[in-house]
Amino acid sequence: MKITSFSQIDKELDNFLMDFVFFTKLITGAKLCKLAITNNVLNVVYQSGIECFSDRFVTISTKERAHINCTLFIFEPFNLSTSLQLHIKTELEIIRKLIESKLKLFFRNEWQKKTFFINVNIDKNINISFSDICDILRDYINQFIDIDLIGVSYLYNEKEEYCFAKDEYKETIRFFSKTAFLSLKNKSHGTIVKKYSDYYMFARKLPQQFICFLFRGEPHPIYSVSISLMLNELLMLLNGIKWIETKNESIENLITSFISSLEAKDVYTRGHSESVAFYACEIGKALNLTSSEINLLKTASLLHDIGKVGIPDYILLKPGRLSSTEFEIVKLHTVIGAEIISKVKEFASLSDVIKYHHERWDGTGYPEGIGGEDIPFFSRIISIADSYDAMLAERIYKRCKNKEEAILEIEGCAGSQFDPDIVKRALPVLRDLSIYQVPFHSFVPPAVEEARKTYHYRDILTGARNINALAKDIEFIYKTCGNLYFLLVDIKQFYFHNISEGFLAGNEYLKNLSKILQEQFAGCSIYRIGGDEFLVISEESIDKIRIEKLKNEIKRQMNIEINYEIHKYNLQCANIQEIVKYFRLQKYYRSILRNYFEILKKFYEKIAIFDKELKPLYYQGVKIDLIEKNTLKVLFYNEEKIGYVYTDKPKQQNEEK
Q1: pLDDT digits (tens, 9 = 90+) for 58-73
Q2: Which of 82, 113, 506, 582 is deepest in the core (most CB within 10 A)?
């Protein structure tokens, strides 16, 4: 920066110098006085009066400080006495000191006024790179100091964070920076100013931070204060940027942890939060949101379902339709999520966005049934993104829609579920976007995911698959098979065992029976469909040899007996619900027939009980093959035929009675 008048530096100084020149001219009788302050950097010149090109002049100067040279030129003077020359020289030294102080103050003020980061608020996002900072800084230094700043190096925690220099100077700045840092390493703070041949270095160290300037050539000492200010203020800026980066990184880690905790709980929604954030941000761009608003929208989208960590697993992981009570509990995830987020200072402003993201434009949503523009703006955007991603995702209880179907549904719900204005702006965006693909794999171990997937399909006591699994398998697997063999097994007199030995012993019977069935029918699907009822489904025929082997193994290990039935079905023609209902009814009817048998055998010596297919179930004192069908009597229960009975030779004691 070239200063052509002292008035640029300070008006008071300019007036003082004009007075000094005027009185010097008056005392000496000179035609012209010119005061010049010259150096290689500032090139400062003050001129008073009309230029005179006379060779006759007296020079009076003071050079005690090399960076301020004050020389008084007096053209055509009278002969000056020694005392007058000394007086003028003394006044000139006072002027030199005054100029020096004024220059320092001038450059300090100018630096503070024109600093390139004066308007940067480090509490907000900083979108300026270190190279940008260095470019502006170099231009600024060249403007005011007129010397080439060739490199800047910044270290944080002893590691190089930034290094800015022309390619030919990068290794040079790194060398000088490392040298200066090692000199100050054992100090908590300090400054180094040193000249190395053609290079001049300024370095400043604070706790955790270190910055080094390297100049080509030597800056004038008058600028040491300004350069020191630059170092300190630049360190403050970089420290602010570093703090923001660290803070943002911590916030991102916190968000990731929140999402991971949800993923660890609900495998079916893995990647859902990221997908919703992606769609929401793209819609936000179409709505001309600012970058800071987009960042807030992204954060809210990522955290919108965090409240599901408070929903019980048996509801959250339930396949199929929820009951009304269960759905009311699921609705609370919005309230729970808002409460969780409100505890984190950085996210507290988003708690209402999360709380109301399931509200509907027509006021029929939850948790409070607000509608229209009373719903937070971000909540209305997330509602669309959330629904869109949910429709595209396949769940165990529903098929996914294709992209066009999902978009048509969004369009159809404008004005009822969704804000119609946002839908209008969102539809072109969704049509142009590819379906979001989750860019990572789950961190949850496969064994955990598998166990969680089967939460509603596994009998907790026995480890066998349950009735829910049977319905699912019938729908998705067995429909493609041909004939299947169904083996129904239950424990004889299980109720008696439960009463006589206790329920804990009964549980052990069930667990052991399940274990034996899985060993004997490896490769087959085994289901617990009732209290002590187990169903084995096999694609291969189940013959009597396998049944006898099963009965012997159960007798050996458990010392109990079983009831069993074998049926053959083609599930393309049969209904599993009807099959299970039939099995259970037959078991119930057998228990009734068993009771008939126990009662009648007290009155008859010969007795036989058959099921309704004429299969003998219980008999005493007779040969089954010799019984003629026309001698059988029908047994009914609630007007339904359940079997047949044969009796002969009433006992004598009964006849007397």
Answers
A1: 777 765 555 567 778 8
A2: 506
- CA angle (269, 271, 272) in 5-degree steps: 55
Q: Do both 103 and 134 map to the same domain?
A: no
Q: 410 in a domain, yes or no?
A: yes
pLDDT score recorded for residue 250: 78
Q: How many domains does the chain have?
A: 5
Domain membership flag for residue 644? yes
Range 389-403 average pLDDT: 76
- Nearest-angstrom CA–CA distance, 409 and 544: 56
* Same domain (yes/no): 495, 410: no
DSSP one-letter code for 458: B
Spatial separation of the C-alpha atoms in residues 40 and 89, rounded to whole Å: 23
Share of the chain above pLDDT 90, in %: 25
Q: What per-residue confidence (pLDDT) applies to 43?
A: 40
- Does residue 290 belong to any structural domain of this protein? yes
Cβ-in-10-Å burial (0-12, 13-18, 19+) of 61 comes to middle
Q: Which residues contact 3 (CB under 8 A, 6 or more apart)?
A: 9, 42, 43, 44
**Residue 118 confidence (pLDDT):** 41
SS3 335: helix
Q: Which helix (H) or strand (E) holds 599?
A: helix 576-600
Q: What does DSSP assign to residue 608?
A: E
Q: Find the CATH number of the domain harbouring 532.
A: 3.30.70.270
Buried b (16+ CB within 10 A) or exposed e, 467-501: bbbbbbbbeeebeeeeebbbbbbbbeebeebbeee
Last residue of a domain, one of 61, 81, 112: 112
End-to-end CA distance of the chain: 134
**Quick one: 377 and 473 in the same domain?**
no
Question: Any bridge partners for residue 563, and if so which?
Answer: 490
- The string of DSSP letters for 172-210 reads HHHHHHHHHHHHHTTSSSEEEEEEETTEEEEEEEETTEE
The 10s digit of each residue's pLDDT in 133-185 is: 777 777 666 666 667 788 888 888 888 877 888 788 889 889 999 999 999 98
State phi, psi for 604 to the nearest 5 degrees.
Answer: -130, 145
- Encoding tokens for residue 407? 């978009």
* Residue 106: strand, helix, or coil: helix
User: What residues form DSSP beta bridges with 635?
Assistant: 643
Amino acid identity at 503: F
CB 415 within 8 A of CB 360: no
Q: Among 388, 392, 381, 432, which Cα is nearest to 411's?
A: 388
- Which amino acid belongs to residue 574? A
CA distance 388 to 382: 10
Range of the domain at 93: 6-112
Q: Residue 48: pLDDT above 50? A: no
What span, in angstroms and rounded, lies between the C-alpha atoms of 58 and 36? 14
